[in-house]
Structures
1.
Amino acid sequence: MNKYESIIIINPSVEEQGVKALIKKFSDLINKDGKVESVEELGKKRLAYEIKKNKEGYYVLFNFEAKPSEISELERNYKITDEIIKFIVIKKEN
């Protein structure tokens, strides 16, 4: 298994319970065949440029281990989740 880092930007209009639910959803998805090492809620920040008419976003950072085949499934779930306005998954060097 490889180590990865993923940052998601959640729509700022999502309430705190919604943010917690999204974090749990993606943590459970990663833990199905991998292992979440840490989740950092970085809070609301101003975006460098507007994304989907939003000037702010709620940032969440996941550090995890997973098989390379699981990343495409994780990214697919990010794409179909309406509350997520932007995401990135990066493979860390061992």
2.
Amino acid sequence: MTVLNKSEMIANALFDRIRSGELTGQLPSDKKVAEDFGVALMTATRALTLLQERGAVVRIPRKGTFVLAGDARELTVSCLPRFFEIFRKWMQIHHPEITLKHQPPRSGYSGDLRVMTTYSIFTSYNVEISQFSRLREERLRQSGRFWDKLCDLYHKDNRLYGVPYLFSPVLLHYNRSLMREIAPDFDPVALDWDTFTGLLEKAVDAGFNGIDLLCYAQTFFFNMVYCLAGHSPDESSVLKAAALFKKIIAFQGKSGVEKETFSKGRTLFALSPRHQTYDKSFEDYDIAPMPYINGVRSCPLASEALVVSSHCTDTEFLHDICEETLTPEFQRLVTASSYGVAADKSVAFESLKTSGRRDDFFFTETANAAVIFKDYPLELVQDLSLCIGDFRSGDIDFDEFKSDLSEAFARQKRAEKRKKRFLEMHEKNEYDNQGEYAV
């Protein structure tokens, strides 16, 4: 016969009460358990530890002991591995009752929590992401902790879907040795469009590539439209941007070194946010702002935010977890390796590392940052993006590119007219029915 010590007997008694449903949520403190069972505090603490070892409760430092019967859960997080490892370590400390399961970001986006980027929010926000409450949004906006415009990046149809835990202006990285060769007096501060395209042409004439757009071709295009048209993008400004874009595309691989990227040292400029710096693969670079276009200097923003999928029911709790990514402690973790600029201003300044480069542009250019997709209807963003991708890849020529852009606007206008007619018809039917019922 096994003789149980006092800690085991108390653990068994508490376990029975948990199974019966008598005890739920937060258990009494160690001190209260000791008083209720008339034992020493150490004995009570050992009993609660035994319950945790059985998987019945979780003990969270400075918070208490919680029953896992109703609180235990698994959350699937759709994100890149680099974020998941940081987030997992954070959750193990602050929410050990939750088990995390990693899901690659391209496998259907069915996760409970997911990391969204600035651009992807405009292809998924309307059906897949849970909105922040008005109260939460107001509190975050009024806190004064975050950089201007960050709350606008994930704001659509007057609702907020997330706040990025890190961001970065998308700027120009340039090859210093090539720049010294073709323009030894280069001044990044005064860079305008004519100077920029002239440098691209000189690079190509010298046998190099002019620019590596990486995955930011659409972003670059929409930023040009913003400089040309401001907050009211129209077909005219888009076609003007197309003419500028045509010139840029010509400098990507004209020299016969199409497969040589910026990090191989054979390209003058690359369009990149801060978290895609080239410290490990290519160190001979510096940073410049985007060029003035039409007298306007604007830079798009790249960002990442943890958001809640719309299929989740406990959205307030999950939004609490999302908000934890905005704390200075978490942001120090996620930006420790120059992985972007922290959303919290105080943490961002702590992470300033010039490393002999004009890294300060990533902070000063926030004044010129633009939320470039905000004023476009979702369908138009998607249509224009497809046109830009087709032209850049060479699937269509420039005349087809312009024609497809115009057709995208025509489709949008037809859609808006249909929507207006439908609403008018719906309102008329409502009015007629009310009149009929009144009779």
3.
Amino acid sequence: MKTILFDNIIYSLQQTGGISSQWAMLQNVMLHNVAINSMFLERNDAINNIYRKNIRTSEDKIVKLSHQLPLIIDRYSNVDIHDINPSIFHSSYYRCVKNKVAKSVVTVHDFTYERYMSVFRRYVHCKQKYNAINNADVVVCVSQNTRNDLLHFLPNIDKDKIKVVYNGVPEDFREIGGTPRGDRLLYVGSRARYKNFDFVVEALSETSYHLDICGVPLSIKEQKYLNRKLGKERYKVYSNVDNHRLNELYNQAKCLIYPSSYEGFGLPIVEAQKSGCPVMALNTSSIPEVIGETPLLMSNAISKEFLSKLKLIESPTIVDEIVEAGKQNALKYSVKQMVNLYKGIYEELC
């Protein structure tokens, strides 16, 4: 029986997030594959991750290093395992294994650091990331756009070892019958500058819509900004929500607002579509590839265009068409398809 060692460092790096959700779905399915022995390398703090808590596995499947380094060091360290010799090593976030026998798989999620981070953070991240990519036997990209970015930043890479595996959206996301969609718009994810959260707030200040924000708690600066622009009664914040609660938010929202300037995939887009929620987004990076045909794509993050798109979702007929097209588009991103493609990669390497 072949052994795959899944490196769960991502569960220590974040409490929730798109990478964690995809990683957990892959592992939950692989645990039931009798042809493969799935093992998990992780730190003690991995269990704090929302998605890790939902993985039911026995202790004999979990490998922990005898000496755990501080996370800031451990996340950049190569993995040195003496107790087991895996056939395949697959890290959740760009770590390499010190084992000449094990085949290596690396999943590339995006090139955000290359585009938006400070010089020091970009240098440290890219050094680790490019080392993992260059030493991998298979490099998985989560979209064609991410594959194009990879070839842009690493033009000399062997193209034959690159595979595209789209993210999968679980059945947790679905329409809830009888749920009224009121005057609330939804924003999901990071509020980093390139995500254009401030643009959303500025544009909404010209309307009467309420805003639901799903992400990390607001900073004091953000609270003051929102209070000034919208007022305390026009926004709510939801942090560390599970898929069940997030699905409820999608079902209650008039529309998901996703004005990010760059995405490797853009998971909330498909989650919302699967939940029957219209999605307004920027026509850039991987977004047009993932979202499918829709009249709600914006060319630029400007209030005039934003407000014109909002008028479209005030028409029940147009909304019905957008929702149906979105649900059909979401069918392309199933967990089963994602896992089957990974299984094919593992089997080919073995």
